[in-house]
Design a protein that fits this description.
The chain has helices at 16-26, 36-39, 47-55, 57-60, 64-76, 82-88, 108-121, 145-155, 173-176, 185-196, 214-220, 249-257, 275-286, 306-315, 418-437, 473-478, 490-497, 511-515, 545-549; strands at residues 28-30, 137-141, 160-164, 201-203, 223-226, 232-233, 246-248, 267-271, 290-295, 318-321, 323-331, 334-348, 354-367, 370-373, 377-378, 401-403, 406-408, 521-528, 531-535, 555-557. 31% of the residues lie in helices and 19% in strands. By secondary structure, the chain is of the alpha/beta class. Strand 12 (334-348) and strand 13 form a beta hairpin. Bound molecules: flavin-adenine dinucleotide. Flavin-adenine dinucleotide (FAD) binds at residues 88-90, 141-147, 164-167, 172-174, 177-178, 207-209, 227-229, 231, 250, 253, 275-276, 279, 380, 384, 410-412, 416-419, 421.
């Protein structure tokens, strides 16, 4: 490939068909590919797309402020809580970032946080979709991220939306689970307020199934979205569990987050390995206790976010891996310790994770004043039994529908994360809107995923991933609510934005246009991210040079 092949002109005839065949073999095509960040984002956010408005602002003729606004508007098409998600998301988008093949993956979560904070500071309203106001009234049960995302997507499409929330403030686990030092409440309040300002009615202190029945809601609304989360803690199911001194992770965090007094004594043992367990351990540390965590597998299998595990250990949480609780020990009714069983990993189970098995005879006792059980949660269906199957579950289809007029998503459909809850809410809203309008949902684009092997990474300047400051250990204790992770400065933000490779989408570098001897590329008069040059196939000589110099893999051989 690469050498130009000219057809040999035969005096006897027209060789245009030969030429056409050669072009068909080696002619380039401008073909958008799926970036790994978007592929791995459970909320489906067009990460590359929103970053492009800022990274390519001069080529797009945008001022910095215009570029930030356009970027944020593209982002919130998928996720109305970017400042929140930039802080708490485990950022699976970064797992396969192609930049990692050059130096270090792009810090997408910090970029998202920065643009989210910028929009809050500039009071940007969430954009309404243009269109007629719909008469249909929609009900939402639960004001967690799933319900808020769904409500937002319906409200921006012009529907009248009412959210019923059993607690006195909206946010679900964002408010009652995740601690303030990871998610300041001013940020959460600001992003929720913007959704409410779209005209969403929020009925607080209204438990569906208790204060109002599902039947009544079904009479009031043409459709309901159920986003009640999974707040009911699972028990350890070991002797000594019943009685004072044993708390659930979610119950403990709800007390901490509402600033209610909670007595844990000097030694706390937290059982579990997820985000709830880590948060509970770090919160107990801030109450002055010595904290040990028990996790029955190894660090590798731990579901909590890696950064959170590192932070917990740096703060002084002792994590015992391959350790499971056997019995809670009490004296005069008070917790005095926990018997611990040493585990070893056996064969992989159905989920592919290796099953922990007890090592016979290998047990020990840890002294403890409080045990916090943070192993898992399930939905609290009390009063909502009519919504579930005989097996006690719900089974949403691909669009989140569980029955006629009923949709569901978020943790109620299976424990997940904030980003998956936001994605579920959006997909359910799109599905419902399509049903109400009779419009077909656009078929999902079937794009090839682009890997670093199909790109030319040497084109890009090297650059280290930004690292934001954190507050000191001393201030974490003196001001337990202060946010630990600081944000990026403006220069850092722009430098990190500039590290995005725009994998699989034209970034307007102009290489194709410069290297094309046949002048087959023309600059677009109305450039857009991914769309800077118009390719004229008729004049293409098929040398494929443009493909060789296209850094991002947007140009590839036509198939
Ligand atoms: P929820 O957030 O639980 O919201 C459900 C809402 O429904 C609540 O407001 C609830 O009060 C309301 N509700 C329930 N029943 C009724 C009823 N009958 N009537 C009316 N309202 C009702 N995920 C991450 O991505 N990153 C993290 O760092 C992270 N940390 C976590 C830390 C903790 C301590 C916990 C508990 C969870 C954490 N998660 C994290 C998980 C994440 O919070 C959840 O996946 C997410 O909040 C699920 O959203 P949801 O809307 O489905 O449910």
């Amino acid at each position: 490939m690469g050498a130009r092949t000219e057809p040999i002109r035969d005096l006897a005839g027209d060789l245009s068909h030969v030429r056409a065949r050669q072009i068909a073999l080696i002619s380039p095509q401008q073909q958008e590919k799926l970036s790994p960040c978007q592929m791995n984002c459970p909320s489906g956010t067009d990460i590359r797309g929103w970053i492009a408005f800022i990274a390519q602002r001069s080529k797009l003729g945008l001022s910095t402020e215009q570029a930030y606004t356009r970027a944020w508007q593209r982002l919130v098409e998928f996720n109305p809580l970017p400042a929140v998600l930039g802080r708490v998301c485990p950022h699976p988008c970064e797992n396969q970032c192609n930049r990692g093949a050059k130096d270090e993956v792009v810090s997408i979560h910090m970029l998202e946080r920065h643009i989210g904070d910028w929009a809050l500071a500039h009071n940007l309203p969430l954009p309404q979709l243009v269109g007629k106001v719909n008469d249909a009234s929609i009900g939402v049960v639960g004001a967690g991220p799933a319900g808020l995302s769904f409500a937002y997507q319906m409200a921006r499409r012009g529907y009248a939306v009412t959210i019923y929330e059993r607690l006195s403030q909206p946010g679900g686990m964002l408010r009652y689970g995740i601690p303030e030092y990871r998610l300041p409440r001013a940020i959460l309040d600001g992003e929720i307020q913007r959704i409410i300002e779209l005209g969403v009615e929020l009925r607080l202190d209204c438990a569906v199934g208790k204060d109002i029945s599902v039947d009544e809601l079904r009479r009031r609304h043409v459709a309901l979205f159920v986003g009640i989360g999974a707040s009911h803690p699972l028990l350890l199911d070991i002797p000594g569990e019943q009685g004072p001194g044993v708390l659930s992770g979610t119950g403990f965090m709800a007390c901490i987050n509402q600033h209610q007094p909670v007595e844990v004594g000097k030694r706390v043992v937290v059982v579990g390995g997820g985000n709830t367990a880590i948060d509970a351990a770090r919160a107990a540390l801030r109450l002055g206790a010595e904290v040990t965590m028990l996790y029955r597998r190894t660090r590798q299998e731990m579901p909590a976010m890696a950064e959170e595990i590192d932070d917990a250990m740096a703060e002084g949480v002792d994590i015992q891996f391959l350790a499971a609780p056997l019995e809670i020990l009490r004296e005069c009714g008070c917790v005095v310790g926990i018997r611990v069983q040493k585990m070893a990993l056996g064969e992989p189970d159905a989920s592919g994770r290796r099953t922990p098995r007890p090592v016979p005879g290998d047990t020990c006792v840890l002294p403890a004043t409080t045990i916090i059980a943070a192993i898992s949660q399930q939905p609290d269906w009390r009063g909502l039994e009519a919504l579930i199957t005989a097996a006690g579950t719900i089974r949403p289809d691909g669009g989140g529908q569980i029955a006629d007029g009923l949709w569901a998503g978020g943790d109620v459909a299976g424990l997940g994360t904030v980003t998956s809850a936001i994605g579920d809410g959006r997909r359910a809203a799109e599905d419902l809107h399509a049903q109400l309008t009779g419009e077909q949902l656009p078929a999902p684009k079937q794009l090839e995923v682009i890997t670093a092997a199909s790109m030319h990474l040497s084109f890009y300047a090297p650059g280290e991933r930004v690292r934001a400051e954190t507050i000191t250990m001393a201030s974490r204790y003196s001001e337990p609510s202060a946010e630990i992770q600081c944000g990026l400065g403006e220069e850092q933000f722009l430098a990190e934005i500039g590290r995005c490779l725009s994998c699989g989408s034209c970034l307007g570098c102009g290489n194709c246009w410069m290297y094309c001897n046949a002048h087959s590329y023309e600059q677009s008069k109305a450039p857009k991210p991914g769309d800077y040059f118009i390719f004229n196939q008729a004049s293409c000589e098929g040398c494929s040079k443009c493909i060789e110099v296209c850094p991002c893999g947007f140009l590839s051989k036509s198939k």
